[in-house]
Amino acid sequence: MRKKNYYSESLKRFWKNKMAVLSLFILVFLAVSAVFAPVLTPYDPNKQVLADKLLFPSSEHLFGTDEFGRDILTRCLYGCRVSLSVGIISQLIASVIGYFMGVCAGYFGKKVDDVISFLIQVFSSFPALLFAMALMYALGSGILNLYLTLGFLSWANTARLIRGTVLQLKEQEYIQACRIDGGSSLRIILKHLFPNCIPMLIVSCTLGIPSAILTEASLSYLGLGVPSPTASWGSMISGAQTFIRTNTYYSLFPGLCIILTVIAFNTLGDGLRDVLDPKMRK
Q1: What global pTM score does this model have?
Q2: 216 with 225: CB under 8 angstroms?
Q3: CA dihedral of residues 211, 239, 245, 44 (deg, nearest 10)
């Protein structure tokens, strides 16, 4: 009963945050547009029509065309698929790794905590983009490698949050009672600790997605992300830099897509943190 009241109250508080709600609607709109891109636009994102290259925005091509005559709006929609999938899937991977490492550090303590805390410090101290560049150079470009690389590099913050939460939870009376009754560590971790860590996992994942999107755009800009001719906002900006003075719109639209998506996720994450994090509520 308490959990139902807690989640209903949290939902009410969230709907009162107008900026967070607006960000949620923006992200839903982007996701739906990306999924139904073949229906929304008649153009093939990879088909080259050299006779229509570098056209200015018009009723036929709302965002204009690139140097190969490809419709920029179409490529922005398909690029949204890449950015959202990379951001969400990589953070799900990071959440799984971060939860496992954080629970082990907080619950078992001692040497296990020392080793995992050291790993958290190591991963937190490396510049994420440089580390990602090195891994992508070693693994090779590709969407699957992006998922694994960004997920592997993003678990430290989640682990730090989960570790702190578990350190508080394991001293609670119901955890101690379960341990005295002979409950195994696996049972305690899955049945009692995991449900209480879900709010922190949601907040951490939401706030980590914009960083993953920016890193993916940077890697694609450098040619280490999604291979050509797959549409990606970062690779579109990279291709537009040659025409930045003559056709500013070419780089403007994919850049605005990145900015809008990152701001929306950050605002949504802040709203969820205010609602779900007990410290922020107080």
Answers
A1: 0.88
A2: yes
A3: -100
